[in-house]
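U., I forgot to send this yesterday:
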Amino acid sequence: MEIIRARDYDHMSRQAANILSAQVILHPESVLGLATGSSPIGAYRQLIEWYDKGDVDFRRVHTVNLDEYVGLGPEHPQSYARFMRENFFDRVNIPRENTHIPDGTNPDTEYECARYDALIRGLGGVDLQLLGLGPNGHIGFNEPADCFTKGTHRVELTEATIRANRRFFDDEADVPRFAYTMGILDIMQAQRVVMVVSGAGKAKIVHEAFFGPVTPRVPASILQLHRNFTLVADEEALSAC
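Result:
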């Protein structure tokens, strides 16, 4: 495990964007696993800036997103499909057909999960997976559990996750209770994993995840076993370590 200590959120974002851009420049046909939420937005903004300058080209890149809320269509203001379009896809030259996100409107859980796993396999797997860290240690929507879940699956979100996502919705009752998410095996099979973490509010869970035991009760702790994992975190997030 490699730890890159950043000064603050902006520095963290630039460090992560450096890794992502190097991956694309050196391997233009890379498959990138992408995350949503506030943590990676700064990295996406930096990549857009470099794209606008002509420093990085996404024409041959494919992407697979970690997750999507069950019940939200791609045009819903809080869907992750829309988040990715507004914060990244529509602002660089990646072909729309090269971007992939679980279909939150598909009621057939078994079919949708099998479809998404097959899609990832068909692309040859993920070359670089970008992650954030949930307040309870979740990665994607892999919540604390008694065991690690392997493939894409439908998960019931914990109250902690629902509360954390409340700020994006008009009312807590509007926050979806279920999501489709890539599984731990999907994440662990990525050739490289990069996690971005910022803020004092994440300090305790960073310590538990990366300086404590590997346990499905703290899903991110499994990354201690990944052969090429980089944690990019700012001073506040690392303050308990």
